[in-house]
């Protein structure tokens, strides 16, 4: 749905889930129905190894800090040489997505979002002594609560102290400060320039420089042209002042994050009632988001069901004590009873086959809202003799899983039964977590 900067690979959609559970390098067992986002890196190159180490170090040490995307864990896949970082799922996309839909962000909304961003950036500068080096709308993510957070620390550089300077040319040239373009030493003020350009673009809906003639011409504009300013007749003096302060050509003249947190543009809207959650929800297509959640949760469920015995115990985390499961005229209540019942069904499907078993093939998946926050999911498909869970439903394309076309499997010839299943999913107590409150299973043997 959204073009989030980091590669979005949902833990519940990909076969990488199996590797997470097998290697036990991510402590997520308390909540396996949590929606996560993965930032994935191949580490064959030294530069990439350093990038991933930078991001992991920053995320680990800044866990749960306001204005920074939360870190949930990491795991390594030796077969592919890939390291994946599990991050908080920011379900509102990025500010780049917001302005793509809304055209621009109103000043009161921007001011409130900016408070969190400045808190996160201040932490990076003053506590972690990091220059982010890639502040831009695509790297400022929002969730459906309206909270804005900084992501992508892969190009951040650590400074020994607050007066140290960097001398490397890394990041997105579009938002790069003049001193960085001149390849001069730079420090935290470089992020302030990038932030100023970002907020100007979000507030006006237009990037202030001409990018059509290539990066070289863009760099000349940044160096030679006056700093861009918003039109004073269309924006408040406080907004114009904020942008002007951030976009000073002289790096030493730019304010710090601490100073910007007390800027009149921030203070002006402190007492203004701004419903950030409603604003961000106005950007998100609720039907599309329901479909995403339904696919992710359902496929996660079947990945576990058809996975190895070593990860099966995690199925318990899908249920609460009030959850119910109906099958063959019986109703099971609570984590333990439901898990025992599913274990018996799974054992029968597995049989005594050393190499192959009976696995699910999801052919249809439908979803709808259930109350204000729940999701009702209906799944139907076939049981086949094989060794890998498959998805072949029209419009269902989970990343990282093979398609039927790739495997050349004739489903009708391998079908040994069919199933229909309905789940009622409800949000749990933890962020982006869901559990099954009600489940009904019907199996039809061929």
Automatic annotation (TrEMBL):
Span of domain NTF2: 293-443
EC class of the enzyme, as a word: transferase
GO MF annotation terms: ATP binding; MAP kinase kinase activity; protein serine/threonine kinase activity
Keyword Transmembrane helix: no
EC number: 2.7.12.2
Catalytic activity: L-seryl-[protein] + ATP = O-phospho-L-seryl-[protein] + ADP + H(+); L-threonyl-[protein] + ATP = O-phospho-L-threonyl-[protein] + ADP + H(+); L-tyrosyl-[protein] + ATP = O-phospho-L-tyrosyl-[protein] + ADP + H(+)
Domain (Protein kinase) ranges: 1-266
GO terms for biological process, alphabetical: response to other organism
Origin: domain of life: Eukaryota
Keyword ATP-binding: yes
Keyword terms, alphabetized: ATP-binding, Kinase, Nucleotide-binding, Serine/threonine-protein kinase, Transferase
Family: Belongs to the protein kinase superfamily. STE Ser/Thr protein kinase family. MAP kinase kinase subfamily.
Protein name (Swiss-Prot/TrEMBL): mitogen-activated protein kinase kinase
Source species: Panicum hallii var. hallii
């Amino acid at each position: 749905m959204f073009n989030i900067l980091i590669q979005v690979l949902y833990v519940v959609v990909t076969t990488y889930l199996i590797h997470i559970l097998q290697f036990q390098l991510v402590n997520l067992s308390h909540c396996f129905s949590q929606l996560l986002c993965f930032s994935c890196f191949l580490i064959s190159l030294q530069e990439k190894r350093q990038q991933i180490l930078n991001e992991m170090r920053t995320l680990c040490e800044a866990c749960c800090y306001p204005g920074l995307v939360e870190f949930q864990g990491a795991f390594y896949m030796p077969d592919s040489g890939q390291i994946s970082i599990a991050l908080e799922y920011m379900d509102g996309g990025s500010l780049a997505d917001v302005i793509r839909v809304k055209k621009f962000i109103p000043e009161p909304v921007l001011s409130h979002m900016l408070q969190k961003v400045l808190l996160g950036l201040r932490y990076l500068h003053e506590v972690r002594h990091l220059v982010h080096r890639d502040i831009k709308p695509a790297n400022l993510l929002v969730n459906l609560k309206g909270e804005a957070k900084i992501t992508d620390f892969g190009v951040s550089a650590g400074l020994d102290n607050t007066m140290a300077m960097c001398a490397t040319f890394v990041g997105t040239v579009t938002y790069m400060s003049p001193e960085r373009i001149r390849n001069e030493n730079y420090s935290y003020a470089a992020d302030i320039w990038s932030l100023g350009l970002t907020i100007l673009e979000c507030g006006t809906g237009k990037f202030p420089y001409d990018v059509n003639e290539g990066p070289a011409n863009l760099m000349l504009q940044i160096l030679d042209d006056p700093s861009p300013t918003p039109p004073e007749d269309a924006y408040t003096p406080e907004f114009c002042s904020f942008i002007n302060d951030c976009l000073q050509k002289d790096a030493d003249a730019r304010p710090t994050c601490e100073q910007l947190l007390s800027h009149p543009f921030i203070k002006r809207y402190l007492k203004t009632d701004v419903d950030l959650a409603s604003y961000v929800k106005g950007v998100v297509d609720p039907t599309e988001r329901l479909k995403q959640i339904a696919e992710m949760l359902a496929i996660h469920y079947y990945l576990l069901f058809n996975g190895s015995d070593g990860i099966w115990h995690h199925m318990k985390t899908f249920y609460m004590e009030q959850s119910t499961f109906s099958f063959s005229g019986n109703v099971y209540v609570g984590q333990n009873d439901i898990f025992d019942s599913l274990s018996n069904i799974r054992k029968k499907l597995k049989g005594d086959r050393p190499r192959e078993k009976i696995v699910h093939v999801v052919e249809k998946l439908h979803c709808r809202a259930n109350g204000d926050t729940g999701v009702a999911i209906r799944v139907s498909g076939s049981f086949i003799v094989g060794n890998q869970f498959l998805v072949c439903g029209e419009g269902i394309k989970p990343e990282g899983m093979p398609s039927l076309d790739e495997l050349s499997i004739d489903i009708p010839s391998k079908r040994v039964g069919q199933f229909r299943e309905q789940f009622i999913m409800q949000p749990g107590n933890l962020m982006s977590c869901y559990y099954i409150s009600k489940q009904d299973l019907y199996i039809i043997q061929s």
